[in-house]
Amino acid sequence: MVKLKSIPAALTIAGSDSGGGAGVQADLKTFSAMGVHGLSAVTCLTAQNPSTVLDVQPTSPAMLRRQLDAIVAAFAPRAMKTGMLFSRRLIDVVICFAEEHRKIPLIVDPVMVATSGAILLNQSAVTALKNRLLPLASLITPNVPEAEAIVGRRIKSIEHQRDAVRELFERTGVPIVIKGGHVKGEEAADIFYDGTDELLLTAPYLRGIKTHGTGCTFSAAVAAGLALGVDLQQAVFDAKQLVTQAIAESRRVGKHTVLWPFA
Length: 263
Description:
Helices cover 39% and strands 22% of the residues. It is of the alpha/beta class. It has a single domain (11-250), classed as UDP-N-acetylmuramoyl-L-alanine:D-glutamate ligase (3-Layer(aba) Sandwich), CATH 3.40.1190.20. Helix 3 packs parallel to helix 4. The longest helix has 17 residues, at 232-248.
């Protein structure tokens, strides 16, 4: 009998990107690149490409819950992450699931706005996200516009990021990393804070490359690292390295570039 190698599984709860650059597709690609089996519960169908989101069709809350139940009935995910959740009713399902499975580390990527500017989280859902879902997380991974929406002020520098990451930790009691790709400068600087330690993670900007899907890839990489048994700080550091590599190794598909997280 052939003895098969065992690998861990990680779960993404996110929207489908029909262009394949972000969302569930980016998460599964990242899990695979890191040697982790990818499980998925799809929250929304989108009609999109790297330039625009044409339409969004949310999954019913009942169907989202059925996907999650089917997954845990057959697998034991060692980490999970969220992406686009879209509505308060879908967030309520995720909150209930996370409360029932507190032993599974949860990475919350608070997806609110697409790179193209399309709104990906209904206003009615923002309060539920901030007050009920974020405190359940093991790590929160907002980019600068998302962090601005949560703290209610502009973030234009590393010092602003540092202030915001501490404020978010005080609000939630949860480790935070604010991704600084939207802050102008020579380097893309991410700041991690867990109430004790602060990490400044930098990489040089790579000009002329579209970075659609970097946030999804980063949070998926952290989840995959946790599924592999890495501690949180190391998982964040490794995720930064993987995203930097994925940008540098981007591939051209038609008129667009796509991230390539495979070594």
